[in-house]
Write a structure and sequence with these properties.
Mean pLDDT: 94
Shape: globular
Strand order of the largest sheet: 3-2-1-4-5
Distance between the termini: 30 Å
Oligomer: single chain
Bound molecules: 5'-O-[(R)-(carboxyoxy)(hydroxy)phosphoryl]adenosine, zinc ion
Radius of gyration: 20 Å
Length: 340
C-alpha cells in the first residue's frame, strides 16, 4: 500500500512542510522569518508567532504543489525537538490537531535525525548516489556541531561535539561583530570569495578527541578587530573580504581536520555533511579535497536540504513509520537533545 506523509518542521525560525510518497519527495515548502534580521539573531517569541502565521499557508502550498489533498494523507510527521520550545509547540500542536481531524497516525522526529538522513531525500525518478551504512555525518548548523556515526537509518552515535558555540553560531556572532546581517554564514561566505584566506591568522583551539570549540575564535576576532580599529577606524570596512576569508578558512580547517581524524579513527570512508553550514562553499570544497586525498566517498547535500526543511523530517519519518514507530498524542515537544 502506498503511504503519503505530510511532514512539518518548525524547530527554529523556518516554517516548512513537505509531502512524501513512499519515501520520495513530492514537495518541500519553506517560509523564512525576516523579522529577526534587525535583531541579529532569532527572537524566540517572534519566531513562534511567525510560525503560527505561516503554518497553514505553508501546509496548503505543500499539498497544492504535490497535487494531493488532505484526504490523501496517511501519516503526519513533525519535529519533536531539539529546538526552541515555543516554535516546536506550534508545529507539534498543528500536527496533533490534524492527526485527530484526519484520523491518521502521528510520527515524531528528532530534528538531528532529519539532518543526518537528508542525503536520502530524492524526488520520484531521481537516482542520486546515497551513502552506505555505516557513514560519518558532520552535522554543522546554527545550533549543533557534531560528528556522528550513522549505523542505520534509526541508529546513530555522537563521536564528537562542540563544547561551546556551534560552527553556524560562530559565523553568525562574528558577522555581527563586523556589522554584517543575520544569518552571518551566507554573508561571510559571499564576502570571503574576494578575500585572502591567509591574510590574518586566528588562533585555533586545542580540543581533545573529536570535540570542537569555537568560542575562543570569536574572542580572538573580537580583540583583533578592537585593536586594529583603534589604530585605524576604517580597518573593518577596508579589509572586510580578507577578514571574512581568513575567519572562514580557520573555521573550515578546524572542521575538516576533525573529520579526517574521525574517519581515521573509525575506518569509515563514507562521508556526508549536513546542516546549514554545509552550504558553505569553502567547507564543501575542502571536504571534497580531503575526500580525494583520503579515499573517501563524499556525499554533499543539495543546497535546498542543508538548512532546516521538512523534507528531511519526512524522510526520517518514512524510516520510522516503516519500522513501526507511532507518537502518542500526549508526547510533549522537547527543547534539548538529551531528552531523546
Ligand atoms: O541548519 P540550520 O538552518 O539551522 C539550525 O538547525 O541551526 O543552520 C543555520 C546556520 C546559521 O548559523 C547560518 O549562518 C549557517 O547555518 N549558514 C552558513 C551558510 N549558510 C547558512 N554558514 C556558513 N556558510 C554558509 N554558506
Ligand atoms: Zn537544523
Amino acid at each position: 500500500m502506498s503511504i503519503t506523509i505530510l511532514a512539518i518542521e518548525s524547530s527554529c525560525d523556518d516554517t516548512s512542510a513537505a509531502i512524501l510518497n513512499d519515501g520520495y519527495l513530492l514537495s518541500n515548502i519553506m517560509a523564512g522569518q525576516d523579522v529577526h534580521k534587525k535583531y541579529g539573531g532569532v527572537i524566540p517569541e517572534l519566531a513562534s508567532r511567525a510560525h503560527q502565521h505561516n503554518i497553514l499557508p505553508v501546509v496548503e502550498a505543500a499539498l497544492c504543489e504535490a497535487g494531493v489533498s488532505m484526504a490523501d494523507i496517511d501519516v503526519i510527521a513533525y519535529t519533536r525537538g531539539p529546538g526552541l520550545l515555543g516554535s516546536l509547540i506550534v508545529g507539534s500542536s498543528f500536527a496533533k490537531g490534524l492527526s485527530v481531524a484526519l484520523g491518521v497516525p502521528l510520527v515524531d522526529v528528532n530534528h538531528l535525525q532529519g539532518h543526518l538522513l537528508s542525503p536520502f531525500i530524492s524526488q520520484p525518478g531521481e537516482e542520486r548516489p546515497k551513502p552506505t551504512f555505516p557513514y560519518l555525518s558532520m552535522l554543522v548548523s546554527g545550533g549543533h556541531t557534531q560528528i556522528i556515526k550513522v549505523t542505520d537509518p534509526l541508529n546513530y552515535t555522537v563521536l564528537g561535539k562542540t563544547i561551546d558555540d556551534a560552527a553556524g553560531e560562530a559565523f553568525d556572532k562574528c558577522a555581527k561583530l563586523m556589522g554584517l546581517g543575520y544569518p552571518g554564514g551566507p554573508v561571510v561566505d559571499r564576502l570571503a570569495k574576494e578575500g585572502n584566506p591567509l591574510k590574518f591568522k586566528f588562533a585555533k583551539p586545542v580540543v581533545k578527541g573529536l570535540d570542537f570549540s569555537f568560542s575562543g575564535l570569536k574572542t580572538s576576532l573580537l580583540y583583533f578587530l578592537r585593536d586594529r580599529v583603534k589604530e585605524s577606524p576604517g580597518f573593518i570596512y577596508e579589509n572586510l573580504n580578507d577578514i571574512c576569508a581568513s575567519f572562514q578558512h580557520t573555521v573550515v580547517e578546524i572542521l575538516v581536520s576533525k573529520l579526517i581524524k574521525a574517519s581515521r579513527e573509525t575506518g569509515i570512508n563514507e562521508i556526508t555533511l549536513s546542516g546549514g553550514v554545509s552550504a558553505n562553499s569553502l567547507l564543501r570544497k575542502r571536504v571534497e579535497e580531503a575526500g580525494m586525498e583520503n579515499g573517501w566517498k563524499t556525499y554533499l547535500p543539495e543546497f535546498g536540504y542543508t538548512t532546516d526543511n521538512a523534507a528531511m523530517i519526512g524522510i526520517a519519518a518514512h524510516y520510522r513509520y516503516s519500522a513501526g514507530y507511532r507518537a502518542e498524542h500526549n508526547l510533549s515537544p522537547v527543547s534539548r537533545i538529551k531528552d531523546f
